[in-house]
Amino acid sequence: MAGAVSLWRREAVFLTAMLASETGIVGMNTLFKAATSKGLNSYAFLGYSYLLGSLLLLPSHIFSNRSRSLPPLSFSILSKMGLLGLLGSMYVITGYIGVKYSNPTLASAISNITPALTFILAIIFRMEKVNFKERSSVAKVMGTVLSLVGAPVVVLYHGPRVFVASSPPYLHFRQLSPSLFSSNSDWIIGGCLLTIKDIFVSISFILQAHIMTEYPAAFTVSFFYSMCVSILTSLTGLVVEKDNPSIWIIRFDITLISIVTMGIFTPVYYVIHSWTVRYKGPLYLAIFKPLSILIAVVMSAIFLGDSLYLGCLIGGVLITLGFYAVMWGKANEDKTRLLTLLENEKTPLLLNHNDDQI
Q: Which long-range contacts (C-beta less than 8 Å, at least 24 apart) are formed by 322-325?
């Protein structure tokens, strides 16, 4: 009984942490979209914010290395961290430029391809198993399908309005959320960039899980990741924007607020991911992506004054059902694993007791 309570408490901690991180990333996308309207450049935003994030992580990295025994930072591990940083810089650049061309809602919607891609990659690399004779595997598959069906319903089907924001507190932000087909070419460009971004995200989840098995230090991995992303995005910006040096000058307005907020949020977000992927695996990260579209719809209704339509409600229900189906499958797998471990611990004791009697 105590083991079951401890398991569910542990699940609640992971659940809360991932919900907070997904809510934060949707909020950051919205804030970034607002800052770009004031002239903030994507490369400057990423370079400065990830540099601030790595500086904030530095004390934790030093402290964690002193307080625990870890394997040496070999060239192989550093190379894998560098590759993770390269993947990270590629997906944050494509992701934020994609948001600039479209909006945060589309970014959240397209991120629903992440669970499917990560699930496939996890099976290929033998990090996940599918056995249709087990209810947990069926639940994970069905939950992913429900989430992927719910996402396009949220975006493409409006239906009648079920909630109207009477007095939006941030009415001047409404220009930041164009209608779905108001600028077709920009919408397609943004969608393609966001799709590429989520392919990189899926690959990075797998690599991150592999690194954490070899070097289980979330703060250290996050520090090197943030530093690599800062360096690579800054170098890319220097090349792409070589004729526009003014992009690196930051004004004391929403652009500075977005950089500082992102700099503080990024290390927390990535430490949560590194910690979660170590104990729960890469698929656990991916299954929270469908929930971000529901969060984006709610935040748009509250902060941008967007109305809530029946399509959003139906799609949100499908996404939530799929989300909890996958969560149920993962929780049952963990429970089965825990019970198996306890049985294996008891068996040697029984064998020793019988030997003494003989």
A: 322/142, 322/143, 322/144, 322/145, 322/146, 322/147, 322/148, 322/149, 322/150, 322/290, 323/143, 323/147, 323/287, 323/288, 323/290, 323/291, 324/143, 325/139, 325/140, 325/142, 325/143, 325/146
d(CA 268, CA 84): 17
> Residue for token digits 């249709």?
132
For the full predicted model, state whether its pTM sits above 0.85: no
- Whether 89 shows a pLDDT value over 80: the answer reads yes
Per residue in 97-107, pLDDT tens? 887 787 676 67
pLDDT of the residue at 304 = 55
Q: 210: Cβ–Cβ under 8 A, 6 or more apart, which residues? A: 80, 125
Q: Which residues contact 53 (CB under 8 A, 6 or more apart)?
A: 226, 230, 262, 263, 264, 266, 267, 270
